[in-house]
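Each letter names a residue; structure tokens follow underneath. Both lines appear below:
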Amino acid sequence: MSAALFALTGADDGPSLSRWVARKADRDHVREFLVQKTIYTLKEADPHSWAIPRLSGRAKSALVEIQSDEYGGGRPKRIHSAIFARTLRAAGLDDSYGAYVDLVPAITLAALNTMSLFGLHRRLRGAIVGHLAAFEMTSSVPSRLYADGFRRNGFDDDATWYFDEHVEADAMHEQIAGRDLAGGLVAADPALLDDVMFGAAACLVVEGMVGAHVLAAWEAGTSSLRRPLAAEAAA
């Protein structure tokens, strides 16, 4: 199971938003990128946590282990959504949940809704497991690149803590998600194999659509948001 998921995520050839941020993004791009991320990241891990009561045994234990780390391992200041809020404040952005929901395009909402759909339905528990596995397997290296882009734009280590944290954390999470979460689920119920792979593929496709939208806008010299942040601030 783990090998199949790594093969799927490794073959993904979608546009690399993280490389663009690392090499080309200016501070306006960085702020827009953060606004796009607020829709999920200020509630990071919650949609996947809905799967906890829908799993059992090895898979359930693995998911709880991953989510415990996402929620700071008992340390409130290390909750990943709280660390991200700190980055927002460093960029002069509003860290209250939903503050920018009217600014982001539909595809950004679709990425969050995909997680919510999978997580809220027991019949789709295989899909939410596959989604989380793909999410973790494609996060570590991009997080390092995002941190590089932020530092290039003058942000300090305190502001990049969120991305630095995910370089190490997600390198560990991807192993747990592939081997124990997805592998444990399919070992216990082989009929869920297709659902796990579908959830992983859905993650790659929808997240890739978000990245493609943002990159297309930036390369055309326009905002990736429904209204530019500067116009919103003026209003």
Remarks:
- The chain is about 70% helix and 0% strand.
- The mean pLDDT is 95.
- The chain has one domain: 2-230.
